[in-house]
Amino acid sequence: MAVTSGTSGFNLDLSEIVEEAxxxxxxxxxxxxxxxxxxxxxNLLFADWANRGINMWTFEQGTQVLTPGVATYELPADxxxxxxxxxxxxxxxxxxxxxxxxxRISVSTYATIPNKLTQARPIQIWIERLNTxxxxxxxxxxNTQTYTLVYWRLRxxxxxxxxxxxxxxxxxxxxxxxxxxxxxxxxxVPGALDRLQVLKAQYDEAWDLAxxxxxxxxxxxxxxxxxxxxxxx
Length: 233
Known about the structure:
By secondary structure, this protein is α+β, with helices and mostly antiparallel strands. About 30% of the residues lie in helices and about 20% in strands. Strands 1-8-3-4 form a four-stranded antiparallel sheet, with no helix packed on it.
């Protein structure tokens, strides 16, 4: 019977990731500057991944207690976007806690609200994706009860670090990360331009495999929302 290692914790730290990427680009990690430029490219790669879709391991829950009379609140600075959100009332009690729908609207829709100072339970949310993101709810929270916005956000991938740390991502993305870094380095390493197209193709394939696996696997159920205008049937 074959003897296996009995372990399954394989991972790579930053130095090993950079070494592998340089080797794929036809070069070697030799100097401190090589490590610094690779770390910079890796952070740019992570920024690119934030534009490519939902990175499931950066999906986390947060809450914001709403203050009566206050409509706008800042989100954590490393927030990329909000994916889901509800208004929670009666928090902490089995008999009273309820999560109620709050609809995301655009700036155009928010701009057309006639009275933005109306106070009641919030039913709409406008998200501003600024350097420090923030959100505005409407109606403005009133003081009849405590409202809490419960949200699920995408946060930024943590920076590459200084050399001995592992990356802020599951092992499944190691091939895509190294392939991407090798492609980025090939654009900077002298004599590596002839490898550029091959490295780009390898990166695209590795990303497609990783991102297609990194998805929600629960069953999806679509329920039509019925809306009636006037008194017709």
